[in-house]
Amino acid sequence: MTNLQDRDFERELQFQASRSGGAGGQNVNKVATKVELRFDVQNSEVLTEEEKALIQDKLANRINSEGYLQVVSQTERTQLRNKETSISRFYELLRQALTKQKKRKATRPSRASVRKRLEGKKRQAEKKSARGFRSDY
Q1: Which of 100, 108, 119, 120 is at a distance of 20 to 30 A from 86, taking alpha carbons?
Q2: Which residues are 39's β-sheet partners?
Q3: Is pLDDT above 90 for 116?
Q4: Quick one: the chain helix, strand, coil %, rounded to 5?
Q5: Are 35 and 72 in contact (CB under 8 A)?
């Protein structure tokens, strides 16, 4: 897999700005700082078919009914910084989706770790049993 930043995703990204919600005073009510990044996964010329399938599968909850991958940013005070944030988040999402997960090797706990766990349980049991009322029978 080549570096994602080396590919030319910029021409396939669509941006839409709108007013952010939430607190922020007058600035929130006047300035369109919220940025929504949209990327058409299926019609992308930059991705291979295999990569498209992986992205469709792993990022299904972020892809809307029209097939667009959406990333929204409204945390920053300027539209430019929100745009930069959404682009970096977009690349991070693609990187995570296209990274192959390592196969998990089944392992057994070491003898020392088992002994340590059992000793801890025994100590805890003794501590709790010492709290109870003891009468002389």
Answers
A1: 100
A2: 13, 69
A3: yes
A4: 45, 15, 40
A5: yes
**Are the C-beta atoms of 39 and 63 separated by less than 8 Å?**
no
What kind and span of H or E run contains 13? strand 13-18
| pLDDT tens per residue across span 100-110 | 889 999 999 99
Question: How many whole angstroms separate alpha carbon 53 and alpha carbon 5?
Answer: 20
**Cα–Cα distances in angstroms (integers) from residue 50 to residues 1, 35, 71, 95, 98, in the given order:** 12, 29, 22, 14, 10
pLDDT digits (tens, 9 = 90+) for 38-58: 999 888 888 888 888 888 888
Q: pTM of the prediction?
A: 0.69
Helical ranges in the chain per DSSP H: 26-30, 49-58, 79-98, 111-131
φ, ψ for residue 72, nearest 5 deg: -115, 135
Considering the domain 4-98, what is its CATH architecture?
2-Layer Sandwich (3.30)
